[in-house]
Amino acid sequence: AHPSTNEIYVFNRHGHHIETRDMMTGNVLYSFTYSKNTSVGRLSQVTDSANNKMVFFRDYRSAVSHIENSLGEKFPVHIGRLGLMTQFSGRSGRNWDFSYDGDTGLLKSTTLPGRLTTVYEYDSSGRVVAVLAPTGARTTIQSWMAEAGTSSG
């Protein structure tokens, strides 16, 4: 459960996240479908409460190769050697690029169409502490560990 968002996360016996429910109403907000109902099942579809779907197509290595939306549009995705998405290709060949720290796997930067790059900085625990926008504006993020969990401000 996540009290600040009023969400309950439901997992199957294999540890896969299968639903996100509204804590107050019990309604399903998101449902997740996997390729197999086993521990090796891969995420294949996400459906929201309005029945919008995202379908994940995989290649021979089981890496996501395309994402299809509810309109039937398929968008290519490139998964790098670390198993992380390095590029998403949108409409009209517009690409979003993602780079990661080789040691931690944390997202280092995102580059949007038009080559606008955002850079992320982390503390030693892997929490974002600063975001450097394409404009040069730097936003710092502070967090405090509380007894009942983590809060950010």
From TrEMBL:
Question: Which PANTHER family does the entry link to?
Answer: TENEURIN AND N-ACETYLGLUCOSAMINE-1-PHOSPHODIESTER ALPHA-N-ACETYLGLUCOSAMINIDASE, TENEURIN-A
One of the GO BP terms on file: motor neuron axon guidance
**Species whose genome carries this gene:** Hirondellea gigas
Name this protein carries in UniProt: Teneurin-a-like
Per UniProt, the keywords (alphabetical) are: Disulfide bond, EGF-like domain, Repeat
- Tagged with keyword Calcium: no
Please spell out the taxonomic lineage of the organism that makes this protein. Answer: Eukaryota, Metazoa, Ecdysozoa, Arthropoda, Crustacea
Supply the InterPro entries for this chain.
TEN-like_YD-shell (IPR056823), Teneurin (IPR051216)
- Domain called Teneurin-like YD-shell: residue spans: 2-151
